[in-house]
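Hello forum,

I keep getting stuck at the same step: I have a sequence, I want structure tokens, and every attempt I make locally crashes halfway through. Rather than fight my setup again tonight, could one of you with a working pipeline run this one for me? It's a single chain of 277 residues.
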Amino acid sequence: MTGVDVEAPVQASARRRGVGSLYAGNGRSVVYRGWLATKSTNWLVVVSGVFEPIFYLLSLGIGLGAFVGTVSAGDGRSISYAAFIAPALLATAAMNGAVYDSTWNVFFKIRFARLYEGMLATSLGPLDVAFGEIALALLRGAGYAVAFMIVMQFVGLNLSWWALLALPAVLLVAFAFASFGMGITSYMKSFQQMDIINFVMLPMFLLSGTFYPLSVYPQGVQVVIQALPLWQSVDLVRSLTTGAVDVGVLWHVLYLGVMTVLGMILTTRRLRALFLD
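Reply #2:
Ran it on my machine without issues. Output:
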């Protein structure tokens, strides 16, 4: 054996034990690979997600809203039903885009394509992969949110200048759900287990104040709903788009920020445990 043959595995082993075992500063390569794959294979599936919240807005916000009339905003003002559910649909669009990309796509890459094994055999660390995949999910969620915000602005559902902050707010929403979604997916071993994600997301979508105020529930149920990440997201975005801003928005930001950090830690540790330890 030559000197090069002996030193290469030693250097690789040292890198895996050091800081480089977690992060090589090259998450952009994961993003670029994902962008090329999306552009060449499943771009139509991604684009189709733009229309889901728009259909909800047309059928419920505008259609059903003609019968509902006005509802109370967080500060007591009366607003149209469409203006009430539109920010909830905006937050949900960001969540859906981020979750679908960070769960089903990641599940296929872990269990079938074995893509991450190849990535982590290079200089990339688990934090690079986590950042790259979560950034892809964030871009998808942001794309859905931006498209829907344009629709909201066009039909006059952004009622305050505070709505300008709704875009960074939904980016935080997407980041929080994407980071946690990828970490949870790393535990899934079958398609049947993946169905648990849909089982959780559907009732959360229906119960998180999306279509009616939290006050319609009994007090005990309200406490449970307020602990849900989607309710935190909906209330944050709704406060901004309707102008009903108070100190409570800082709690929502803190909640989603902590969720993001915990999700990143979970995802990084799981990737390392699966492919490096």
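Confidence is low (pLDDT under 50) at residues 1-19. If your local run keeps crashing, start a new thread with the error log.
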